[in-house]
Amino acid sequence: MVVPADLTARLGPLTLPNPVMLASGTCAYGLEMEPYGDLDGIGAIVVKGLSLERSEGNPPPRIVETPSGMLNSIGLENIGVEAFLRDKLPLLREKGARVIVNIYGQTLDEYRRLAEILGGAEGICALEVNISCPNVKKGGLLFGQDGRETRRVVEAVREKTARPLLVKLTPNVTDVGEIARAAVDGGADALTLINTLQGMAVDVESRRPALANVLGGLSGPAIRPVAVRCLWQARRAVPVPLIGVGGIHGARDALEFIIAGASAVQLGTVNFIYPGRWREVVEGIEGYLQRHGMTSLSQLVGSLEI
Amino acid sequence: MKVRVEENRRLSADFQRMRVEWPGALPEPLPGQFVMVRTRSSTDPLWRRPFGVHDFSRRGGSASAALLYQVVGPTTRDLAATAAGESIDLLGPFGSGFDLRGKEHWLVAGGRGVAPLFFLARRLIEGVRSLRAMIGGCTESHVMQVEELREIGCPTEVATEDGSLGRRGMVTDLLAGGLEGISDERRKDIVVSACGPEGMLRRVSGLASAYAVAARLSLDTLMACGQGYCQGCTVKTRSGYSLCCREGPVFDAEVLSW
Q1: What's this model's pTM, rounded to 2 decimal places?
Q2: Could you tell me which of A278, A290, A220, A285 has the C-alpha nearest to residue A255?
């Protein structure tokens, strides 16, 4: 008889029934994913990065396909935090979705105000602090590439909310471990690795950048080895739970991150191509645990042997 | 979702038409809507590709949809090599449709832009609305479905840039001639629906504005998902950015900010 495995994901103060989340910026506000499966079956949905005010994002063209990947320079287009709380969150709660809100500010004060506003909202299970978007001029990546700035942002948010706090890190640094330590020192409960890799593509016929923003963020299977590397380096640097993201296309890819030390994973670019893939990844992880005689996910997390 | 290919026919050197079964689980498509298609399980190419629904029909309890495509890249090469009985991976239908209201409809297509307009013509003919089509291409082998349009009762004119079929020139020359030759009163009743290269659509938009006729344009942008997740397919409108996949792909010419 096959015993069902316990897929509970433990992320410090946050516990999820399974470790498969949808990454910010790849599932809109979550509700749009409903045609492909009940939202309460997803470990958690990390909604599109929110700013204080509505943001229009970058001019087109914003995306280009690359080998086993894509570049984007969406520029954090979003409806703003108040519209999210008014128009989206009540529906997400009705569907039983576990909602994590990704937040983005251009100044420390904006991060603080976002944390205050969201700290008082029912139906949000955690905040994910975005200090790693390569596609906005101010803030974003500038915070996440500097240890001191990283710590200041995380401290600012931490002061304003008792909610579980995830911090999403960039791979565009020399030492991921240093930034990971700074985020944990600032009060992060868990870290999400990685955001996109900065990249660029050129249209050779027009001799212009493929993206209007010139630079963009690379995602998709092409970045998976870099993501697994960053996750493993963070694993060695900090004791907090980690969430692996970057190029996961199926269960096997998710298992790489979990074995390297991730307590949960996020699916990103794959949602664009196979929007219901999260279910197969959950089932694939469970099948793997059963095949290997494990009764719970925690036995597999960080089980990498070197 | 895997759908079975019922027929895949070569129409010219680089155009083909594929008919696929339409599963009951999918909503019935409207003219102007599109599907997102994938042919491989590998991650290169990564994205699905959008195809405007070319035709849709029901027979008894089953339904089928047609895709008209030009072989231009890896996905369309794969499609061309897919045999009846095999399957392709399809999601949809997505996006807004063409406007079926209005007394008189003029359809203007450039090259593969005829794909969604044929479906529109069929629906408009069913509603017995006044209808004409203008089809253009660089050469004869790029002008598709002219006889099929005439067969369903849609008067169709043709222009080719090299003069190999129909009038020599651009399809927008046919539109300009048609609009010039009628009264202001009649123009008020006309809806122009167009699909084709951006340069052609800009010209259609300019003519529609100059002659004060309504125009609906089906745009083609890069799309990673086709359903609003990636927010990559932005087009500029007079009121800000819109997603081509959700608010479009069919837009009123007057809301676009070219």
Answers
A1: 0.96
A2: A285
